[in-house]
Each structure stands twice: as structure tokens, then as C-alpha cells.
Amino acid sequence: EIVLTQSPVTLSLSPGERATLFCRASQSVNSYLAWYQQKPGQAPRVLIYDGSNRAAGIPARFSGSGSGTDFTLTISSLEPEDFAVYYCQHRSNWPYTFGQGTKLEIK
Amino acid sequence: EAHLVESGGTLVQPGGSLRLSCAASGFTFSSYSMNWVRQAPGKGLEWVSYISGSTTTIYYADSVKGRFTISRDIAKNSLYLQMNSLRVEDTAMYYCARGQTAAGGGWFDPWGQGTLVTVSS
To answer: How close does chain A come to B50, measured CA to CA in Å?
Structure first.
């Protein structure tokens, strides 16, 4: 089973700042990594798939990069609605696993 | 627009059984794989089970293997999760989520709103 480790666990930033979230895989997942956003009381929604592709309707301030074992989600300028929990997930092989999440909170 | 609605979650005693349902609409149900994902209170996401569009391929997380059974009814556009021998640690919000192809997995989109299963005496 591939283990995904996200860092930091919590990120405290202010609106307008740049956020950088990391996800490291225990073995290569090629580019088969997605990022999800989850707000309190809501289901997760996909932001980025296959490493760097923005899902439909996702604002351009969200971008993903990386391949192999190291991936990054960048939010270029934080909006108030971006404060949430973010998860990475691979689809390299079964079982598809999720990272433990990064909570992005308002500073 | 693709839409998923889960139902069936409730309070159940340890050792009991429960069947969750997920009603799909807005897309050709048989053309997509489907998944169940759960989230324990205050915790992260855990993939539970996968079923291909044709139902020929099924996978389970080790934590539920032998106790849970995933199935789908193409005629009813519905996904199911039969949960037996329930444990306290199965307490979670259960989400159904669509894959991106019939045979493969792909990322999960969309997700339903979830149904809460509580296992407690």
C-alpha cells in the first residue's frame, strides 16, 4: 500500500497570501495524484487531477505540480473561501489511498 | 450534471448489519466505476470499496474485506454497500463517489453528500 504524507499538518495564512501544500508518496505514483478540498460539513471536491490538471470549474489560482513521489498544490492568492482541509490521493494502484490532510486556516 | 445521493445510514449495534444506497443521476451509470469512501468523525478520508462499470472488477480495503459487499443495479442507477459484522470503528460518514471510466479508477468526481453510520451499543 502506498502511503501519502502531507505537510504541513496545519498552515496558517492570511487572505491574499500564497499557500504551498506538499504531498509525498512512499513510492512513485507517476503523475497519478489528485488534490481535494473539503469544507466543514461538505463532501470533498476535486481540485487537481493527474498532478497538474485543474478540474472543471476550479479557479486558476489553484495549481498542481510534481511527479513520481513529490507533489505540490499552490494557491496563488488566498480567498476567504479557500480556508479548508486539503487531501491528496493517488490512483497508481489499488488501494487508492489519501494523505492525512492539511488544514489551511486563517491567521 | 452528475449527481449522487446516499441513504441508509443510521445507528446500529456492534455486530449488526446495514445496507447503504447511492442514487445516481445525470450520467450514464454503467459507463463509470463507482466507489465508497468513508470519514470517521474528525478524521481523514479512507477509500472503502470500488466496483467497475460492468461489475466484473471489485476491490475492498483490508479493513472491510470479508464484511462489506459492494454492488450496483444498472436498471435502478444505484450503488449499494452491504455492511455486515459492524464494528465501533466503522462509525463514519460514508460517501459514494464516481470514478472517471468504466474499467479504470481515476479521480473521484462527483461525490455525494454522505450518509452517517454510527455503530454503538
So the answer is: 9
Which residue in B105, B58, B60 sits closest to A89, CA to CA?
B105
- Which B positions 63-102 lie with beta carbon below 8 A of chain A? 95
Could you give the dihedral angle defined by the CA atoms of residues A93, A96, A99 and A103, in that order, rounded to the nearest 10 degrees? 140
B47–A44 C-beta distance less than 8 A: no
Judged by CB atoms closer than 8 Å, whether chains meet at B107 and A34 is answered as yes
* Percent of chain B residues past pLDDT 70, beyond the cut: 100
**CA-wise closest residue to A40 among A107, A89, A103:** A103
| pLDDT tens-digit series, residues B58-105 | 999 999 999 999 999 999 999 999 999 999 999 999 999 999 987 777
Handedness of CA B17, B32, A48, A88 (dihedral sign): positive
CB contact under 8 A, B107 and A46: yes
